[in-house]
Write a structure and sequence with these properties.
Layout lengths: L1 E4 L11 H9 L13 E4 L12 H11 L6 H6 L9 H8 L4 H14 L6 E6 L8 H6 L12 E5 L4 E6 L8 E4 H4 L3 H14 L10 H6 L8 H12 L1 H13 L6 E5 L4 E3 H10 L2 E6 L8 E8 L2 E9 L9 E6 L6
Parallel strand pairs: 5-7
Antiparallel strand pairs: 1-2, 3-4, 4-5, 6-12, 7-8, 9-10, 10-11, 11-12
Helix pairs in contact: 2-4, 2-5, 8-10, 11-12
């Protein structure tokens, strides 16, 4: 069964907020996902993609290892040239993506691959940073926040590069537990569970999700949000330090780059910027939003550079995640 998506709309039927702003200010649609044209998709393709095995990670890994990669089939046919423990999962995801999205990303990487030198071995790690002994040894004494690379490159001279892969330039840059960053994370978890218990919720049930989320909407009395805000204020410098480490991979013994299909970002240069300038974490208020979230801006020398959402990935009985995105893209 097919579904028609009108220009300026997302696959879920909602209006694209970026399109609205651009149409109002500049008279054209955003460039993301062919939003300027009417398109027909299979309803089966509207399911949420598996972010643990993102197509772009496989694409970048194979393109860097092999020459003459030009399309999806080339990637799949050359998947055995890289080291990866979950190849089938990545192939599932790349088979869900459009030819245009894949081919554009391939073209970008093929133009930029010379920057990385002569490559001997490519390791596709994804979320599994300790799946190869040689990588585990490289990353010893580093935290999960500091190990940002989805791909590790071993060059012919036996030096290493790390690459953090984003499927597009407005992708989330970090996704970490805020309670693990804070010293009183266990206390915060107890405050949250006691609050939920007082409202009649002892465990996560999918059918209760909307009702539970509404308890955490802005403007509602919520002891957990109050406690979390106060904890962030007390340890703001620690939170800012963790944010900088997550954005820059600042403590790795190898150089790390970030690629997003349009840019190659040297994280050493980003580190120089963030560590040499004043970083502020400023809470934002959205009293009328129906969302179980907290919002912050990151200011670099007084200029807004990043947005933060603190939110859950479905199950409110887990720690909320601190999610960072570049400020020029609004959260949906």
């Amino acid at each position: 069964m097919n579904k028609i998506i009108k220009p300026g709309f997302l696959k879920n039927g909602k209006v694209c907020k970026t399109c609205i702003k651009l149409l109002s200010n500049k008279g054209y649609y955003c460039k993301r996902g062919d939003h300027s044209i009417e398109r027909i998709i299979s309803i089966s393709n509207t399911n949420r993609k598996n972010v643990d095995y993102n197509f772009a990670e496989l694409l970048v890994a194979v393109c860097l290892k092999c020459d003459n990669i030009g399309n999806r089939d080339d990637i799949i046919n050359n998947v055995e040239t890289i080291k990866c423990l979950k190849k089938d999962e990545y192939i599932k995801d790349i088979n869900c993506r459009s030819e245009k999205q894949i081919n554009n990303y391939i073209s970008f990487i093929n133009k930029e691959k010379k920057k990385f030198g002569k490559i001997k071995t490519v390791y596709l790690l994804g979320k599994n940073t300790n799946c190869f002994p040689e990588i585990t040894e490289l990353n010893q004494n580093l935290s999960q926040i500091q190990c940002k690379s989805d791909i590790m490159l071993k060059l012919v001279n036996n030096s290493w590069f790390g690459i953090s892969v984003k499927s597009q330039k407005d992708s989330f840059l970090t996704n970490y537990s805020i309670q693990k960053i804070l010293s009183n994370g266990k206390e915060l978890e107890k405050v949250k569970r006691d609050f939920l218990k007082s409202k009649g919720y002892l465990e996560f049930k999918k059918e209760d999700r909307k009702k539970i989320n509404s308890l955490f909407y802005p403007g509602k009395e919520n002891i957990y949000w109050d406690s979390l805000y106060n904890s962030i204020e007390i340890e703001k410098e620690k939170v800012i330090c963790s944010i900088k480490e997550g954005l820059c991979s600042s403590n790795t013994p190898y150089k790390v780059y970030e690629v997003d299909g349009e840019n190659v970002i040297d994280l050493d240069k980003l580190q120089e910027e963030l560590y040499s300038k004043k970083i502020e974490l400023v809470k934002k208020e959205y009293p009328n939003k129906k969302a179980a979230k907290m919002w912050y801006d990151i200011l670099v020398d007084g200029i807004k550079k990043y947005s933060i959402e603190i939110r859950w990935k479905g199950n409110v009985f887990c720690s909320p995640q601190i999610i960072i995105q570049k400020i020029n893209i609004s959260f949906s």
